[in-house]
Amino acid sequence: MVTRQLSRAAGEAAAAAIGTRGQSPGCPPFAAWGCTEGERTWGGDGRAGGGVGDGSGVHRGRGRGLGVGDGSIAEKEETDSRSLKWEPGNWRQQLDNIREMRRNRDAPVDQMGAEKCFDSSAPPEVMRYQVLLSLMLSSQTKDQVTSAAMLRLREHGLTVDNVLQTDDATLGQLIYPVGFWKNKVKYIKQTTAILKQQYGSDIPSTVVELVNLPGVGPKMAHLVMDIAWNNVTGIGVDTHVHRISNRLKWAKKETKTPEETRVALEDWLPRDLWSEINWLLVGFGQQTCLPVNPRCKECLNRDICPAAKRCRGNGCSS
Ligand code: SF4
Question: Could you give the residue numbers annotated as active site?
Answer without folding.
Answer: 219
